[in-house]
Design goal:
- The protein is of the alpha+beta class.
- The chain has one domain (3-110).
- It is 36% helix and 10% strand.
- It has helices at 3-15, 65-76, 94-110; strands at residues 20-23, 27-28, 46-47, 79-82.
- The strands form 2 sheets. The protein has a two-stranded parallel sheet with strand order 1-4.
- Helix 1 runs parallel beside helix 2 (65-76).
- The chain is elongated, with a radius of gyration of 15 Å.
- The two termini are 30 Å apart.
């Protein structure tokens, strides 16, 4: 989907009174716990948006679907829950936590003007 198609999807959801959007992941990495040597500094996951933190990008049609979804939802007064995605499947190490914090900080500082934390 293109950025415009993501915006159109958000508008369609709103017209059906579906006012909560859930972005499951903003990065994809398919490594499994115990089968990698990843650290926060050599993370190999690929972003669904232009990331300065980790430059690898998923091959998709949209340039920045995260921004497209967030800006469309904001204009319509919709809520969005953003999941940052996996460090590695079933990996719950201190490296995971540090990576999640870095990605969340990048997203919130670059993409979100108003953040409400529940």
């Amino acid at each position: 989907m293109t950025d415009d198609q993501w915006r159109e999807l958000v508008h369609s959801m709103n017209s059906l009174e579906m006012n909560m959007n859930v972005i499951q992941e903003v990065f994809r990495n398919e490594a499994y716990v115990g089968k990698h040597c990843l650290t926060v500094d050599n993370y190999t996951g690929k972003a669904f948006y232009p990331s300065d933190l980790y430059p690898g990008r998923m091959q998709i049609a949209a340039e920045d679907p995260i921004e497209a979804i967030l800006s469309a939802a904001d204009k319509l007064g919709m809520s969005v829950m953003v999941g940052v995605g996996m460090f590695a499947c079933f990996d719950f190490t201190p490296e995971l936590l540090e990576r999640q914090k870095r990605v969340a900080k990048e997203l919130f500082s670059n993409k979100c003007s108003e953040i409400r934390v529940w």
